[in-house]
């Protein structure tokens, strides 16, 4: 093993020892009772089976495994629309394998692409914890031997993982839907967005480009949070090898979905090899997830989600762990916004199977982990194929099919990963540097302070930002307004950077998983609404962002900064309308960004 991976893993194990032991003991107590259906009263069982048709006798006998299907299906979210057909496939496969499956419940699944720049985005991060709660309610009927989770996108997968960890005595298999086929190239989409932001083209042309990009069922094809989630589910062993990036509606995708049911039954206590979710969600699995995040230049949203997911499994990780692993991990992939390729092209070039093999060879991933495919991560270097009508796995690509998209660990795009930790007199923040050119890794400029995205865009349109500037958008943290993504700022800030200005963004909010070429110090903690120093900044203060040195600081004497009266914000408008009034308890209870911005753990 790489010495950094060894050291970080040992530190996490030591830090987590008490919490992890208590978690595993709780899961063991649940498992000791045996399959829960065997203990149901006749009245309980009658309710369980009342609408189960021909499956009723098998469920009531409590011999074959019964799978809970927890689904995030809806028609509006393109990545989740294919899940409409999955329950029928899963039920048929379970039946053929001697078991049964029931849809245990649904969870909400919002599309951040719809809510970007709108009030609904202020519910986005909180939806992760709502999903965990809803999945918990789904599984609380306590009549299942395993669970299959149907989810892909931004907050959905992390919320489902938190629920799977909470029910850690049950095996958990994740079954993705896959990415949509390639549409308008992502760099062309970005170019058109920038032209629209600059006022060079109208809405009609912009709409045509967007609809040519997002054009059918499946995950958006850029490497944002949804596809980063799918990478994590493979690297952490929660879904089948090679399952992430197979397109919806194909025979191979249907075969992988059916296999998910067979695997869930095999992993159940009633099956051949009991493997609960608590065994898969280990300290080493989370280290593997952090390494995968760095090697692929994945979404900054996972910096929050990984912390929350790990805590649900009794594992304590932090941003320092991520920074050290990123510094030791080579950047092996260039997928938009970190390059020109989309995830379909990444998959065709060798994809995750090649990447996992390279990282294992470099000692950067733990091979000795439990997975839903069996013991050991080596299985995840293989790729699924159809042998006639049968699903099989064969050795994955031994070499990259396109060195502009995917490179070996020994000859990467850069020697370090896609994420860096920033520290200084404003607190701690993270930055995604994989898409930022080296000449923009260090920015020093006067700040201009805002408290909404709209005010930034208005200042841009008025020409007030046409200079070297650090745009500060504060009171965007979880306590203030739910920590919305500020992706709508990417086009105007990109225009300013393309004009030759030194530009950066600093915020206690989030950027999209598609955040790209403009340096952005995000998730700044403590947030302005929680007494953070960000609330003491004033227009004209000079701020230095240095990704190479890991520094974020305002160039002020410490005494002067401390003596300033913190600014306050009228947040009433962010606390009502579009359902926001329902989440007051979440804003009051949410933890800091560094501890996952979590409510339920």
TrEMBL record:
Highest taxon above the source species: Bacteria
Cofactor: [4Fe-4S] cluster
EC number, as in UniProt: 4.2.1.12
Alphabetical UniProt keywords: 4Fe-4S, Carbohydrate metabolism, Gluconate utilization, Iron, Iron-sulfur, Lyase, Metal-binding
Catalytic activity: 6-phospho-D-gluconate = 2-dehydro-3-deoxy-6-phospho-D-gluconate + H2O
Pathway: Carbohydrate metabolism; Entner-Doudoroff pathway
Keyword Metal-binding: yes
Name of the top EC class for this enzyme: lyase
Domain Dihydroxy-acid/6-phosphogluconate dehydratase N-terminal: 66-378
Domain Dihydroxy-acid/6-phosphogluconate dehydratase C-terminal: 404-597
Cofactor annotation comment: Binds 1 [4Fe-4S] cluster.
Binding site for [4Fe-4S] cluster: 153, 220
SUPFAM superfamilies per record: IlvD/EDD N-terminal domain-like, LeuD/IlvD-like
Chloroplast as UniProt keyword: no
Record's function text: Catalyzes the dehydration of 6-phospho-D-gluconate to 2-dehydro-3-deoxy-6-phospho-D-gluconate.
Protein family membership: Belongs to the IlvD/Edd family.
Record protein name field: Phosphogluconate dehydratase
């Amino acid at each position: 093993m790489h010495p950094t991976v060894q050291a970080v893993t040992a530190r996490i194990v030591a830090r987590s020892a008490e919490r992890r032991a208590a978690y595993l003991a709780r899961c063991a107590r649940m498992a000791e009772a045996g399959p829960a259906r065997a203990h149901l009263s006749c009245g309980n069982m009658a309710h369980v089976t009342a609408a189960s048709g021909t499956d009723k006798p098998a469920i009531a006998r409590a011999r074959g495994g019964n799978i809970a299907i927890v689904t995030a299906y809806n028609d509006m979210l393109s990545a989740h629309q294919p899940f409409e057909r999955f329950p029928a496939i899963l039920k048929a496969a379970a039946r053929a394998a001697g078991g049964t499956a029931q849809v245990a419940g649904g969870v909400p699944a919002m599309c951040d692409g719809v809510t970007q720049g709108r009030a609904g985005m202020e519910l986005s991060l909180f939806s992760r914890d709502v999903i965990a709660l809803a999945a918990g309610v789904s599984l609380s009927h306590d009549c299942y031997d395993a669970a299959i989770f149907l989810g892909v996108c931004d907050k959905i997968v992390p919320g489902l993982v938190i629920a799977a960890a909470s029910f850690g005595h049950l095996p958990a298999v994740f079954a993705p839907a896959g990415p949509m086929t390639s549409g308008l190239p992502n760099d062309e989409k970005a170019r058109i967005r920038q032209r629209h932001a600059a006022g060079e083209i109208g809405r009609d042309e912009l709409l045509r480009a967007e609809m040519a990009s997002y054009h059918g069922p499946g995950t958006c094809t850029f490497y944002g949070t949804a596809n980063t989630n799918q990478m994590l589910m493979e690297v952490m062993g929660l879904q089948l090898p090679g399952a992430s990036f197979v397109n919806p509606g194909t025979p191979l995708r249907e075969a992988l979905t059916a296999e998910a049911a067979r695997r869930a039954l095999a992993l159940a206590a009633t099956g051949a090899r009991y493997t609960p979710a608590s065994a898969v969600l280990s300290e080493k699995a989370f280290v593997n997830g952090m390494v995968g995040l760095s090697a692929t230049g994945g979404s900054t949203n996972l910096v929050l989600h990984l912390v929350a997911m790990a805590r649900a499994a009794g594992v304590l990780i932090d941003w320092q762990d991520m920074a050290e692993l990123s510094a030791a991990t080579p950047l092996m992939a260039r997928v938009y916004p970190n390059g020109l390729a989309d995830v379909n092209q990444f998959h065709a070039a060798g994809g995750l199977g090649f990447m996992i093999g390279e990282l294992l060879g470099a000692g950067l991933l733990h091979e000795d982990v439990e997975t839903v495919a069996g013991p050991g991560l080596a299985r995840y270097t293989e790729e699924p194929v159809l042998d006639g009508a049968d699903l099989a796995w064969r050795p994955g690509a031994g070499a990259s099919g396109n060195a502009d998209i995917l490179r070996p660990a020994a000859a990467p795009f850069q020697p370090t990963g896609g994420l860096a930790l920033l520290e200084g007199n404003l607190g701690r923040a993270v930055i995604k540097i994989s898409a930022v050119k080296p000449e923009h890794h260090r920015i020093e400029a006067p700040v201009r302070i805002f408290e909404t995205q709209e005010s930034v865009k208005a200042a841009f349109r008025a020409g007030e930002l046409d200079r070297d500037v650090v745009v500060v958008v504060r009171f965007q943290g979880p306590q203030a307004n739910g920590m919305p993504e500020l992706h709508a700022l990417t086009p105007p800030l990109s225009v300013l950077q393309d004009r030759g200005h030194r530009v950066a963004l600093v915020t206690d909010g989030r950027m999209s998983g598609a955040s790209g070429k403009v340096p952005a110090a995000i998730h700044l903690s403590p947030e302005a609404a929680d007494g953070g120093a960000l609330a003491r900044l004033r227009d004209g203060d000079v701020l230095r962002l240095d990704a190479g040195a890991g520094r974020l600081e305002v160039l002020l004497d410490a005494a002067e900064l401390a003596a300033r009266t913190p600014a306050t914000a009228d947040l009433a408008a962010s606390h009502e309308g579009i359902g926001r009034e329902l989440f007051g308890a979440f804003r009051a209870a949410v933890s800091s960004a560094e501890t996952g911005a979590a409510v339920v753990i």
